[in-house]
Description:
This protein has helices at 42-51, 54-59, 64-69, 71-80; strands at residues 22-25, 38-41. The protein is α+β, with helices and mostly antiparallel strands and 89 residues long. The protein has a two-stranded antiparallel sheet. The protein starts with 21 loop residues before the first strand and ends in a 9-residue tail after the last helix.
Amino acid sequence: xxxxxxxxxxxxxxxxxxxxxxxxxxxxxxxxxxxxxxxxxxxxxxxxxxxxxxxxxxxxxxxxxxxxxxxxxxxxxxxxxxxxxxxxx
Length: 89
């Protein structure tokens, strides 16, 4: 198990502090058959689902690298990296 202080958000790279600011994300949505889940900032999770439809997530954006390369997500990451880890949006 990874020590809590070593947990980083796989989308934005900021530290994850367990609590209200953390959520779970399925790279392939459950509605599309996804099972694996990852800890991620709630604000990052919300941005993913506000920006990309589940079918698109499953087909074209099912890796962290692909998500980070999406133009709107890339701009969001640049913006959110200036916020504290517990930022809720």
